[in-house]
Predict the 3D structure of the following.
Amino acid sequence: MKLLNGKTAIVTGSTSGIGLGIARALAAAGCDIVLNGFGEASAIERERAQIAKDLSVRVTFNSADLAKPAEIEKMVETATRELGKVDILVNNAGIQHTAPVESFPIDRWDAVIAINLSANFHTIRAVVPQMRQRNWGRIINVASTHGLVASVEKGAYVAAKHGVIGLTKVVALETATSGITCNAICPGWVLTPLVEKQIKERASRERISLDQAKADLLSEKQPSHEFATPEQLGALTVFLCSEAADQIRGAALPVDGGWTAQ
Ligand code: NAD
């Protein structure tokens, strides 16, 4: 028996980066998975089939746009119908936009708040009733070091991620006497498409090589000078789903090479 045999998880934004790492780690622990996110249909289907085959779990894909509450509700309904229940919810989908506050495009502000913050509210409110019925659940919100501290030109992202940590604490308190736990993971820099875009922008702005931009990005914030990895975040997620983590509630756990220790 694997740790999470018989459990079912929705991992939002799991067609890429951290979400995919978390989905793979949960599947390796025996959990059935609902993948979600954007991308090329054939690549997503290849990934879905690969995880199902390699790890002998059921894997479905749901294309819900997390900026749309009605699609989120439908995703939870479909997951519950197709896989029987939702035991674990990983709120991971996220986007970034950088600009000074006075020129921050309003539509980008709205999109970042909708996907990075409000979507967490909509998924959580949809899954908590069934978790309460079984008196077991795990809600893991992928926040960020930017849920704990700020950086310039990331007004929407920092506001959303601080909001995620606040929501995490409220849900943890509301479920404190139950078998449901709610926690946040706060990664520092992880080398994913979301960060590769920022590295490219920095290299072109400062007219430096991509390698130099990567090294500068790390040395500016992350004392270890090393990226955290999707695999490490996956392993932490599996731990948070274990019995050993029953009393970890409302925590915001940094995985940031020392960024927030400074
Ligand atoms: P990524 O760009 O590789 O992946 C983002 C995922 O979200 C993709 O699967 C994408 O399709 C999905 N997505 C985006 N908009 C969506 C929408 N409207 N509906 C459904 N899915 C949508 O990025 P990542 O770096 O893996 O980021 C994952 C999470 O980790 C985000 O919440 C991000 O803020 C957070 N995070 C990342 C880092 C980092 O350094 N990469 C650091 C801290 C926190």
